[in-house]
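Researcher: First entry.
Model:
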Amino acid sequence: MATNRSAGSLRGYTTPLQKAAAAVGAVFLLVGILGFIPGITTNYDTMTFASHHSNALLLGIFAVSILHNLVHLAFGVAGLLMARTFGGARAYLIGGGVIYLVLWLYGLLVDRHSPANFVPVNMADNWLHLALAVGMIGLGVLLSRNVTAHRTARGTPPNVT
């Protein structure tokens, strides 16, 4: 008997919120891996561990370093793990969105050529961080509202683990 595997790796994630968190986590994991692939990351030979001196650019656009790539990998793994529960998925999307909002502000305030720019970030990163913040917080809030309202209307507790 054939098994239905059409949902692929998202099969274990039951709610749209969990699926969204898992998808975001998978994208971060992919971005972290791509950051270590020469050609996809231009100026790969100039990549440093963590500083504004790294001239490596993911897709020729986004400034990356070894630390930056490792953070993407960790953020991706965290998303996949936290997406296993409703509460974890919500915390990942909203909390991660807040982290990216802080990173956006950091990118706006820190001089790109300053030693304080240890991540490193450039203008493309800044706008991507803002889009990620809005998108993640939006997904976390909107996709958890419907489940919370539905469960409250049925008389079951809104805190789904």
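Researcher: Second entry.
Model:
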Amino acid sequence: MTAPRARTRREIKAYRRPRRHKCWNHLVVAPLWPLHGVNLGTLLRTCDAVGGCMAVPRLPWVPEALDKGNTLRRNPCIHWTSTNAGLWLDRQRADGAYIVGVELTDESIRLADLPAARGRTVIVLGHEQTGIPPEGLARIDIAVEIPMIGSGVSLNVAVAGSLVAYKLAGLL
């Protein structure tokens, strides 16, 4: 049995980037109530990996956190929202986006049952400690939960957002 051969950077690039993505026609990862800057950098990398974009509120510390966390060689696709997340979500829905909240609710579906996105989809991520606030939950079309066996209540926002983004992109 021969050992697997790792692809070269050129092979990877040719395979993954056949054409430029159109950010508003696919996935937008939206950590609208961020607490930790390190999570934004991780989500930015995931957005690039799935061909999506990130929407973040224009808080004073967010641009620096994104600059620090950006390990990509090109400028990532970032959209700035107002600090009023509810109004931003209302505009996304009015523009035809499907809103998916990553939250534990009585109506949440399991991540495994979430179909790939068929159109522009916004993935709403809540605050690392308190989740999606009521004004955000009132605006989502569907809630998705990531089942856990361990003793923790939830996953890190960057990890949870990455799992949902991969699933909605049809890559899992």
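Model: Note on the second entry: The two ends are 27 Å apart (CA to CA).
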